[in-house]
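Anyone up for a design puzzle?
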């Protein structure tokens, strides 16, 4: 068997492994979420466990239990606190929703009437009937979603599985992390061992730099937007600011979505230019801090992932696998990026590229 045939078989095997992994993840996407969350938590906490076990005086099992318990003791009160605020604000929003719609409708019609003065061709448009029809149609998808959530028990099961299964998975992954990675790397052919290990180190550098840094950026932005909108005295501002910060892991989508939601709320609740300017200032300062301080300092500019590539990966992952896809999108994007760079470097060394 010649070298070309061996290379072809190797490429077919690699492609088959990737294809099989993708098919299995798609088929099992409804049950994978708690396992992926557990692995992600272990990945975040692994450096702390490594520090505790560095001198060998503390066993990895004991260090894993201690770090995981400390993490849960910090995380759970925060989730309960934020969940209470979110539930209170969402409840108020649902109660006041008809009033918000009527207020926004009145302001919209007033603006449209002023616009008709400058564009007489719009005078014949029956905007009120169109508004009523469009509002009714736009609320139908939300009603369908709510009905599905209520009728489908899987949402409750997923929450329970996250609370029960994810910590267990995180513990075992923390305890056996290095054993898992060692066994996987032992399966790599010796000839390609160094190249694969270098690739794994590069992927780990990218993922750790992005995920840990982006998590801190999201928390910082969520805190800033929530406090800023609270100071503006915008009802539901804390919830909108928190959501805007948490969605900021998708470049530009979080800030734009939060800004649009905040603008609708400020127009509905106040409608004054002064309040609108205050909201614009809050989001403008947030973008300034993110672009000039938070992202460069916490994420870094040399992680090797272009914002457009990250955005595409997150949205594609969300379409294919939902929340699970968005969680694994960046690691998969990092793996593909490293693999493509490896293939491009080999191509530039090949006879096909160097041939004149």
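Challenge accepted. My sequence:
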């Amino acid at each position: 068997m010649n070298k070309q045939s061996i290379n072809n078989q190797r490429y077919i095997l690699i492609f088959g492994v990737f294809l099989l992994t993708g098919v299995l993840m798609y088929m099992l996407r409804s049950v994978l979420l708690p396992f992926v969350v557990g692995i992600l938590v272990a990945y975040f906490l692994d450096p702390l466990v490594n520090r505790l076990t560095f001198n060998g005086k503390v066993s990895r099992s004991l260090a894993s239990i201690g770090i995981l318990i400390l993490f849960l003791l910090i995380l759970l009160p925060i989730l309960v606190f934020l969940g209470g605020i979110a539930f209170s604000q969402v409840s108020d929003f649902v109660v006041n929703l008809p009033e918000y719609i009527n207020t926004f409708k009145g302001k919209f019609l007033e603006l449209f009437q002023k616009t008709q003065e400058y564009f007489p061709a719009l005078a014949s448009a029956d905007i009120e009937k169109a508004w009523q029809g469009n509002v009714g149609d736009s609320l139908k998808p939300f009603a369908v979603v709510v009905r599905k959530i209520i009728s489908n028990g899987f949402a409750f099961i997923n929450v329970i599985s996250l609370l029960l299964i994810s910590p267990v998975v995180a513990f075992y992954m923390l305890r056996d992390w290095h054993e898992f990675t060692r066994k996987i790397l032992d399966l790599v052919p010796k000839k390609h061992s160094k190249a694969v290990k270098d690739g794994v180190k590069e992927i780990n550098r990218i993922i750790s730099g992005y995920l840990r840094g982006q998590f801190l950026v999201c928390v910082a932005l969520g805190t800033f937007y929530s406090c800023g909108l609270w100071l503006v005295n915008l009802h539901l501002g804390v919830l909108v600011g928190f959501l805007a910060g948490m969605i900021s892991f998708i470049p530009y989508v979080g800030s734009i979505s939060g800004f649009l939601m905040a603008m609708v709320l400020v127009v509905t609740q106040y409608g004054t230019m002064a309040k609108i300017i205050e909201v614009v200032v809050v989001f403008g300062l947030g973008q300034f801090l993110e672009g000039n301080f938070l992202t460069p300092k916490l994420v870094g500019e040399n992680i090797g992932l272009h914002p457009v590539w990250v955005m595409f990966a997150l949205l594609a992952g969300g379409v294919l696998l939902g929340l699970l896809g968005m969680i694994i999108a960046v690691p998969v994007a990092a793996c593909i990026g490293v693999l493509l760079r490896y293939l491009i470097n080999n191509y530039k060394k090949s006879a096909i590229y160097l041939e004149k």
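A detail worth pointing out: The radius of gyration is 26 Å.
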